[in-house]
């Protein structure tokens, strides 16, 4: 029997506020961001179980992301994205992770500016 493809956890449109940017106004005021995360892992145990310990706990991951974003200041979208990606790929079961963060209203005439980064085991 061939191995199953990875399961994918998607955290969609996590809306948070943080200090992000280099302009005086950005340093003084929190801004809205939207985070999307995709985490791939085998889920071999969880496929045949009802035990949370056999699954990757997306609630724990989301809480870590919220704590990071709400309790830190960031000058660069790149640094924020990398820090969230570090949380997403921290668990040893993770085989691939991707993070996209939108900084809303960063440019006139644009809904947002986003940064995407990924990691592969």
UniProtKB/TrEMBL annotation:
GO terms for biological process: folic acid-containing compound metabolic process; pteridine-containing compound biosynthetic process. Its EC number is 5.1.99.7. Gene3D superfamilies: 3.30.1130.10. It catalyses: 7,8-dihydroneopterin 3'-triphosphate = 7,8-dihydromonapterin 3'-triphosphate. Keywords: Isomerase, Lyase. GO terms for cellular component: cytosol. It holds the Pfam family FolB. InterPro entries: Dihydroneopterin_aldolase (IPR006156), FolB_dom (IPR006157), GTP-CH-I_C/QueF (IPR043133). Residues 9-119 form the Dihydroneopterin aldolase/epimerase domain. GO terms for molecular function: dihydroneopterin aldolase activity; dihydroneopterin triphosphate 2'-epimerase activity. It is an enzyme of class 5 (isomerase). PANTHER family: DIHYDRONEOPTERIN ALDOLASE 1-RELATED, DIHYDRONEOPTERIN TRIPHOSPHATE 2'-EPIMERASE. Homooctamer. Belongs to the DHNA family. This is Dihydroneopterin triphosphate 2'-epimerase.
